[in-house]
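Late entry, evening session. Most of the bench is empty. Finally got around to the prediction I had been postponing all week. Sequence below, unchanged from the version circulated by S.P.
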Amino acid sequence: MSRAHLPGSRGLASGWLGTVRAALLSVVFPAGCQICEQLLTEATRLPICRNCLDSFAPMTETVCGKCGRPVESDWTSDDQVFVCPTCKNDAWGGYASDRVRSWAVYQGALVRAILFLKFENIEALGKLFARWLTKIVKQGGPAFEPDVVVPVPLHRQRERGYNQAALIAKPLAKFLGLPYKSVLLTRVRPRPDKYLLNYEERWEAVRGAFATRPGSQVDNLRVLLVDDVMTSGATLDSCAKAWREAGARSVIGLTVARAVLENATERLQ
C-alpha cells in the first residue's frame, strides 16, 4: 500500500496544507486583531487574536436564580437559591421570563467584541458566542430544555441587513438540535430615534413593542430567547411578556453578556 493511501494520510495532508495556507495568507494579507490591533498570525474568519479570545472569561460566581445577575455579598438566599433585590421587588413584579442567563459580564475586551459583531456582521464571531451559550443550556438541566430558539427582533434590520442576535441564535439552534424560528416574534413599535437611552427610557421604549406573529402556533412552547447583551433587561422582559400573552409555557432569556447596573431596584420603584 502506497503512503498516499495509508489510512488517515489524506486528513494529515489536508491539515498540513491548511496550516501552510494560513501561514502564507497571514504574510501576504496581514491583518490586525480587532480588539488589541496586534498582527494576527493565523488566517481565520475570526479577526480576533488568541490572547484576546482567552481573555473573555465566563462568569464563575453564583448568580441570581431568576435574572442571572452575579451575587453580591449582602444578598440572602432561600434554600440555597439567591434572588437579587430587583427580582424580589413585589411592587415591580420582576422579569416576565422564567430565568435569564448570560455567559459573561459586559466589560473589558468583550465589549469591543460584541460591538464588532453588532456592526460588522461577522458570522464566525456569532458562531463562537453560540458555542459558549450551548454550554449554559446543556449544563442547565431540566430547567433548560427549550422547544425552539428565537432571536430578539431588531428594529433596523432592513437598513442594517442583518440581526446580530440572529448571528448567535441560528448556530446555537444547530448546536442544540432545535428549530430556529426568527419569524415567530416581531417588533410592532419602533425604537425611539434617540440613540442613547437612560434606564427609565429603555423600559418605556420597549413597553408593548413586541408581539408574536398572527397565526403562529406558540401555545405551550418552551422558548429560548437569544440576544447579544442584557443591559437593563427591558427588551428581554418585553419579548417574554409577548410570548406569555401568546400562551408560551416558559421563556428563558440567554445573552452573551450582561451589564451589572447599580441601584436598578430603586429605579424601578
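Two things to note before I forget:
Residues 3-51 form one domain.
The two ends are 78 Å apart (CA to CA).
Will write this up properly tomorrow.
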